[in-house]
DNA sequence: TTTTGTATACCCCATACAGGGGGATTTTGA
DNA sequence: TCAAAATCCCCCTGTATGGGGTATACAAAA
């Protein structure tokens, strides 16, 4: 495989050593080409439309505009570009923020070069590369608490409440009486030690009961 | 690395060829041992407490008790056992159901043996192995629609509504008048073409506006 | 420059809903 | 068979909701 159209990459990373290191390593690899690298988002934004890379390696911890804030701005200019986040800290909020804003993958700088090259290839192939710990964080966010104090029926009802349904609609939909729904809700409030739907939803989500 | 304590595995899979194939391949690998394999969940459940495997390879498409329903039952017996789902169909609902119920990873049967062995190792190391397409589905579930018709403020308010907050609490919390909140909600309903908080939440979630 | 969109705020109205108090009965699973 | 879960019933008060219309200030786009 020689002289195929190379995968084009842009690096946005403030640490010069890392930036130059990645640039060198990627350019030294067959079929990969770093079009440009920037030390901050501001510079990158004015040049990206010209660069039109397939993949952007984006540091999270940047001066000025932070990496996460940059994601929607970049996606706006280049909707088809894949964004891979680079980070040293595996902060949970950052992970979810970056993903909701449109990042396609999430790597840690401690990942070795081979893994990062693989990730670039994988994202171009339509994948979603993540380092091991990030995958763990993501999967863990799905896991529900198996020790919920709520019964099956109570959980069902609380989920409906969290979907904005009124008690009477829940009753109709579950083919039970409004009074039954009220009873369940009373028990839910008792068990969660709350006095409103708002607090019940908050408590249940915090503890991953729903 | 020879004669370390092996990683113990149980396979639950109804296709005999696949079951025996995996059993053979895993046993042929250094430091891995298949304690038992079962063709259905019912048989597995009565023996698992004795087997006490570190990892279970669990097929989704099983006769009788389906793989997904089996997860909480297994987790109940063996809370520390890692469950890796095996599937042929990359069905989105199945993926999320399995993950919420406590599966630690998600592989497709088309993954080659090496990948499956790597996944077993990775999950024991505390990771969350996923095949490429599954990772893509998971990451995509986080992505929000960047073309929301709602303004920033409207989105904020709709998120509060989805958290169960009343209009007056939203007003207090956002330091704006109740009437302003009402105005925003009116506009949200107009834009989403709905007439209730319930439908607004549903519509917004369907389109990933929130 | 004029128009449009956004965020802000105010008024009125009728209905539905929420939360809390007290029960009771039946169904089900261990 | 016995406790937990799910079901249903009555009372009460205060608040929330959805829809009607109007208006202003400001920024951005046409």
Which residue ranges of chain A are poorly predicted, with pLDDT under 50 across at least 5 consecutive positions?
none
CATH topology (fold) name of the largest domain in chain A: Rossmann fold
In CATH terms, the superfamily of the largest domain in chain A is: Response regulator
CATH class of the largest domain in chain A: Alpha Beta
Percent strand of chain A equals: 5-15%
Could you walk me through the main structural features you see in this protein, from its secondary elements to its overall organization?
The structure is a homodimer of 210-residue chains. By secondary structure, chain A is α/β, with parallel strands linked by helices. Chain A has helices spanning 16-27, 41-51, 67-77, 92-101, 113-124, 132-142, 152-162, 167-174, 178-192, 197-206; strands at residues 7-12, 32-38, 55-59, 82-87, 105-108. Chain A has two domains: 7-142, Rossmann fold (3-Layer(aba) Sandwich); 152-206, Arc Repressor Mutant, subunit A. The first copy, chain A, is built from ten helices and five strands. Chain A starts with 6 loop residues before the first strand and ends with a helix. The relative contact order of chain A is 0.09. Chains A and B meet through helix 3, helix 4, helix 6 and helix 10 of A and helix 3, helix 4, helix 6 and helix 10 of B. The first copy, chain A, binds a DNA duplex (30 and 30 nucleotides) through residues 151-154, 166-168, 176-180, 182-187, 189, 195-197.
